[in-house]
Amino acid sequence: MSLINACRLLGVLLTLGPAPQASPPPFLYATHHPQFIEKDPKGVLTYIGIVPVRSTMPMVIDSQAHRLYLAWLAATNEKNEDDHTHNIWRFAILDTRTDKVLASVKYALPASGVLLTADPARKRIYAVLDGCDRFLVMDGASAAIVRTQACQSATPVAISPDKDRLYMLDKDGQSIHVLSAQTFHEIDQWSIRAAYLTVCPRQQALCSILSGSDAVEVIDCKTGQPRASIPFAPRRWQNNQNLKIAVNPVTGRLYTPNGSQDERLAVMDVATHRLLRTVSIGPFLNQIAVDPMTDRVFVAAGYQIVVLDGKMNTILTKIGSRDQVDTISIDTGLSKIYVCLRCGLVLAFQEAPRR
User: Fold this and answer.
1) Which candidate in 77, 95, 150, 288 could, as Cys together with 246 as Cys, close a disulfide (CB 3.0–4.6 Å)?
2) Is 249 helix (H, G, I), strand (E, B) or coil?
């Protein structure tokens, strides 16, 4: 190329200026971390940030005390003083008003999983240890272990509406054990097959998904007598750790995946024992959480958070994620949402008021 032509080309480039840059995608950035969550196009959730704790198990919240309880596997196959192999589990308590860690402790436990339940009335945490037939009673302020109780459950503890009873499934899903919340002595046992339990306070009922069945069973909380069965589409329910059933304690509506591939969400009315509607969500439903204050339903579904209007049973928004969304927990007193990703990071969001 001649010198004259080179100068002409340089002049053209200087005139054009730098090449235009593609506009960045609408992702929110977290401090010292790559982008994870898309911006909510509808403004239902506003991203706050990453909280200074991790989680590898479903989180639970005490909305009265504004405490978020988390557990994660910190190390595997560690030997204790007795030369027994244990896993190292870390438990943390987060103040949901400030997102500051209030307590963080670790225990060597022969458990493959930890399933938490918050008991606001007694300021406790119940931690079912999967794989070792016992559960821990922990102080809700410090996560200190105050009692170890034998059990054979593989699902979280459910608490009765009057707060006096605890319900636990045996690991084979063949019966429900009823324990005193004060003494932890077994006071009853009901021969009811189930894979998961939740409580509907409005109807004074237990709702269970039956193992090998296509129905939700509505059970009297005090007597254990079945009230009704709510049929829905076939699916393959098994005993598992996923929280795939949730109840709005104000409206009495129940939400659970519908169909063998978990692609639709079934909405049921516990009072009338009717299937109201199914809503198309998508595959890989990991958890369902309900905010009774705004009547919104939050679904962790693969690589997205799906938010539904609980009154209309319609989708309000979908928020994409770069990592799989595992669990969702809500401080209903603050309308604050916590989302745990598969990598263990926990993200905080502020929920917009209902219009």
Assistant:
1) 288
2) coil
pLDDT for the residue 238:
44
User: Which residues face 106 on adjacent strands?
Assistant: 90
Structural contact between residues 138 and 124, judged by C-beta atoms closer than 8 angstroms: yes
Residue 122 has φ and ψ, to the nearest 5°, of -110, 5
Spatial distance between the Cα atoms of 262 and 90, rounded to a whole number of angstroms: 31
Residue 112 three-state SS: coil
Q: Could you count the other beta carbons within 10 Å of the beta carbon of residue 205?
A: 24
CA dist list (Å): 136 to 128, 163, 234 = 6, 18, 35
Tell me which residues of the chain have a pLDDT lower than 50. 1, 3-34, 234, 237-243
Rounded Cα distance between 272 and 279, Å, is 19
Over its C-alpha atoms, the chain yields an Rg (Å, rounded) of: 24
* pLDDT score recorded for residue 298: 97
pLDDT, position 186: 93
The amino acid that residue 258 corresponds to is N
pLDDT at residue 257, as a whole number: 83
Report whether 306 contacts 299 (CB < 8 A): yes
